[in-house]
Each structure stands twice: as C-alpha cells, then as structure tokens.
Design brief:
about 160 residues, mainly alpha, rod-shaped
C-alpha cells in the first residue's frame, strides 16, 4: 500500500463516509428516522383533522350566531313597530280624552256663566223693583195721605213682589 493514499484528503473523506454509513446502519437510524417521521406525519394528520372539525364547528357556530342576530334584529324591529303602534294608539286615546275633558270643562264653564248671568238678572230686577217701589212710595206719599194711601201701597207692593218672583 501506498502511504500517499492516506495523505490524500479524499481518502479520509471516503473512510469517514463509510464509517458514517456503517454507524447509521448499525444503530438502525433509517428505521428510527422513518418511524419518527411517520409519528410526526400521524400527529400532523390528527391536528389537521382536528383543525377541520374545529373549523366546521366554528362555521356552524358563526352561521348560528348570524341567524340569531338576524332573528334578534327582526324581533327588535317588530318590538319597535309594536311600540310605535301602541304609542300612536295611546296618543289618539290621550287626545280624545283631552278633547273630552276640555269639552266638559267648557260646558261647565258655560253653565256657570249662564247661572251667573241669571243671578245678575235677578239681582238687577230686584234692585229695579226696589227702586220702583221706593219711587212709587214717594210719589204716592206726595199725592196721597192716610189709610187709603197705606192700603194702596201695600196692595201694589204685593203685586210687584208676585210678578218679580
């Protein structure tokens, strides 16, 4: 053998490569690497399947929440529409009640005014009658005297009182 072969770096690379391949097969590294890769591949496959399931579940939940949101929106719109109808009806009822109350109060006020007018008329008539009686008494006293005057005055007063009341 030639000693120059051992001096060549390519020889040492080849020897190292052969030793490396020998160690790899001695410790059954290809089987272990394949087994580790298979385990890793199975784990990745499980994770992908779980991710698919989670995605499907998330999509289902999203669709459910979208449906709930639409239902809630529709229900809110119905509630608002119902509230508007009730408010409109209440406003009409309140307006009608207010109009009725105003009409009653106006009627009561008109009746009070009529009563006061009638009362004032009676007072004016009574005062006019009293003034007329007083004036008549003065005239009669000036023109008449004695018992004839008194009886005439009393009879006239009785007639005036009956007419006025």
């Amino acid at each position: 053998m030639n000693a120059s072969i051992f001096m060549d770096p390519e020889t040492w690379v080849a020897i190292a490569f052969v030793l490396f391949i020998g160690v790899v097969f001695y410790y059954q590294l290809p089987g272990r690497v394949v087994k580790a890769l298979d385990q890793r591949s199975a784990a990745i496959a499980r994770e992908l399947e779980e991710a698919r399931k989670l995605r499907a579940e998330a999509e289902s939940l999203l669709a459910d929440y979208k449906q709930r949101a639409e239902n809630a929106q529709a229900e809110a719109e119905q509630i608002i529409a119902q509230a508007e109808r009730e408010a409109s009806a209440y406003a009409k009822e309140s307006r009608a009640a207010l109009d009725e109350m105003i009409a009653r109060r106006l009627n009561v006020a008109e009746q009070k005014i009529k009563l006061e007018e009638e009362k004032a008329r009676k007072q004016i008539r009574a005062q006019a009658a009293e003034l007329a009686v007083a004036a008549a008494e003065q005239l009669i006293e000036q023109k008449m005297s004695g018992k004839v005057a008194e009886s005439t005055i009393a009879a006239s007063l009785d007639r005036i009182k009956k007419r006025l009341h």
